[in-house]
């Protein structure tokens, strides 16, 4: 398995875990009314704002797609915004990150995810929902 495929699988798994985690956050946050101000870091940094915006857009776009009942179509329609979210987050890294290794990783994420989005868009065009 190539590094790019391993990375894509890792990102997909991380996204799924994050989605499960985020489902439980509202309930937990109501139970935990602690003063988190002392624990906060630079939560208003450009990178934090960029990551938040990318994640919010990704989740909204993933939820906006109506299910068709066709597992293949529904999977691809959900994965396109998921991959776009990875691209958007990688762009935040390139705009703000300093570590050469992570910047190179972000460039690889963009290239791999763009290619897979194209593949999925082409597949959807060739397999219209009936």
From TrEMBL:
DUF305 domain mapped to chain residues: 34-124
Highest taxon in the source lineage: Bacteria
Protein name per UniProt: DUF305 domain-containing protein
Range of residues in the leader sequence: 1-29
Protein keywords: Signal
Keyword Lyase assigned: no
Organism expressing this protein natively: Rhizobium loti (Mesorhizobium loti)
InterPro entries with a match to the protein in the record: DUF305_CopM-like, Ferritin-like
Keyword check for tRNA processing: no
